[in-house]
Design a protein that fits this description.
- With 508 residues, the protein is an all-alpha fold.
- It has one domain: Amino acid/polyamine transporter I, CATH 1.20.1740.10.
- The longest helix is centred in the middle third of the chain and has 36 residues.
- It is globular.
- The protein starts with 26 loop residues before the first helix and ends in a 30-residue tail after the last helix.
- This is Putative amino acid permease.
- One of its GO terms (biological process) is transmembrane transport.
């Protein structure tokens, strides 16, 4: 929790007696949050077959390229994390590099993006549980009670301490990745359908028209990896833990995704896998694991897809709570959202608010007779995904701008070359996603246009808010995304970390 100093502006939230549980999370714990948010089993079983259908057997390379792009972004991102120590993650980075107006717009975009990424997934929880109940017991259950029960369960998980959440996610993540490793072992031991092949890496199979769509799916599969920085105040030795967790998460996801897609291609054979994906994409992984491991493993995969969705929901819920906490401490959101539970040391009021918001959205879609997958999930999740990608782009642009204005001892590769390259690559990724938006939503051009517009509208809404704060609440505006006192960090800065730019050095 960022303490309020004696000269802190009156409009900023006063420091509560309880603080976040500092020193609770190690590298593996933070990586669990990030990888769990990505929901690797759900992404592979639910989305990878479409990537294969569109991009052919070269699809694994798309996931590697996306991972490399985000690793390049992480170079500048983690370097700047040693200098910007506040709890606002993306919006704090953007504010320090591009000014308060842009930073406030980014803060609203972050709230919309993270909430979109989580709330839409309650529709997926309902349909995934329906599918599992039907596959295992032949039962047909309604999706709404499942989604509402999930809201309560995730709300409780966020209410508890952060180390409790880390332990839960650790167990669930091992389960969902373990079932995919089991599939891989079966395919490798039996040699695939026609022997193992490296044809997926051949340029002729990668450089095909469908590769652009594969890249769009691949970038979407990494959404939320940057949330490592959100847990800085609860990390042990954050100057080392946060960068390590970021690289670990990106590296694991990139390699794991590419390897798993390659494995399922081997399971069917290069010549047959595209046809199989076209006939029934949802059954591709279940058919493969039934063939190479057994029907019992397919039953487990059904169960673990549900737990994978729950893990993703809990990870995003915790990230949203900490964003809301930081903005309440800034004085931008209502002050009660900054309250921290005295026992669990969690931002429980923010968690309750987020759970209520999720329930309202879910109930609204149910009342409108919307499909939980095709509309609640895809129409809410897609704008959130685009919003977080735009935040990544803004952060990449902010990094070299920030380091131009402050004294530092970081190298040019980290502060200029990597961020500029990441800016180009991330802009390309956003273009790919937007131009292939119909693959994500299956909606009409009018609906797709509205969904794409959510991110820029949310960002633009921050500009008049910034103007209003500057005129009516100048103390809040001037202290927005200001650095906490040195004493607020649980660990002193590393030797190469230098003082950040003073708040009056921000662009206005």
């Amino acid at each position: 929790m960022t303490p309020t100093t004696p000269d802190a502006p009156a409009d900023r939230a006063p420091a509560p007696t309880a603080t976040l549980r500092s020193g609770s999370l190690g590298t593996a714990d933070i990586a669990f949050f990030v990888v769990s948010a990505a929901a690797p089993l759900t992404v592979m079983a639910g989305v990878a077959p479409l990537a294969i259908l569109l991009g052919g057997i070269g699809a694994p390379v798309g996931y590697l390229l996306a991972g490399i792009t985000l690793a390049v972004f992480a170079v500048g991102f983690t370097t700047m994390s040693r200098h910007v120590r506040g709890g606002g993650a993306f919006y704090a980075f953007i504010t320090r590099g591009l000014g308060r107006r842009v930073g406030i717009g980014a803060a609203l975009l972050a709230l919309v993006g993270y909430n979109g990424m989580e709330i839409g997934v309650y529709g997926l929880l309902g349909t995934a549980t329906q599918d599992t109940a039907h596959a295992l017991f032949g039962a047909d259950i309604p999706w709404l009670p499942v989604s509402l029960a999930g809201l309560l369960l995730i709300g409780y998980g966020g209410y508890r301490s952060i180390d409790f959440g880390a332990k839960v996610l650790g167990v669930l993540l091992v389960a969902e990745t373990g079932i995919l490793v089991l599939l891989a072992a079966g395919v490798l031991i039996k040699g695939g359908a026609h022997g193992l092949s490296a044809a997926s890496l051949a340029p002729g199979n990668v450089l095909v028209p469908g590769t652009a769509a594969v890249l769009a799916f691949a970038f979407a599969a990494f959404t939320g990896f940057e949330s490592t920085v959100i847990y800085r105040r609860e990390a042990r030795d954050p100057h080392r833990t946060v960068p390590r967790a970021t690289y670990l998460a990106v590296g694991f996801l990139g390699v794991f995704y590419a390897f798993t897609v390659w494995i399922v291609i081997q399971a069917f054979g290069n010549a047959e896998v595209v046809r199989a994906a076209g006939e029934d994409p949802g059954a591709l992984f279940f058919t493969a694991i039934t063939t190479y491991v057994g029907g019992w493993a397919a039953d487990l995969m059904h169960v673990f897809i549900v737990t994978s969705v729950l893990a993703s929901l809990l990870a995003f819920h915790n990230a949203i709570n900490r964003y809301a906490l930081a903005l309440a401490e800034e004085g931008v959101l209502p002050r009660p959202l900054a309250r921290i539970h005295p026992r669990h040391r969690s931002p429980y009021v923010s968690g309750i608010a987020q759970t209520v918001l999720g329930a309202l959205v879910v109930l609204a879609f149910w009342a409108a007779g919307a499909d939980p997958y095709g509309q609640l999930l895809l129409w809410v999740n897609t704008p959130g995904m685009i919003g977080l990608m735009v935040l990544q782009l803004l952060a990449a642009i902010a990094i070299p701008c920030y380091f131009r204005r402050v004294r530092h001892q970081e190298g040019t590769l980290r502060t200029l070359v990597a961020p500029v390259l990441a800016t180009v690559l991330l802009a390309t990724a956003i273009v790919l996603v937007v131009t292939h938006i119909d693959h994500f939503t299956g909606a009409s051009p009018t609906v797709n246009t509205l969904l794409v517009a959510v991110a820029p509208v949310a960002f633009a809404a921050g500009l008049p808010l910034a103007w209003w704060l500057r005129r009516r609440r100048p103390e809040v505006y001037e202290s927005f995304a200001a650095e906490p006192d040195e004493a607020a960090d649980s660990t002193p800065p590393s030797k190469d970390a230098t003082a950040s730019a003073p708040s009056n050095g921000l662009a206005q």
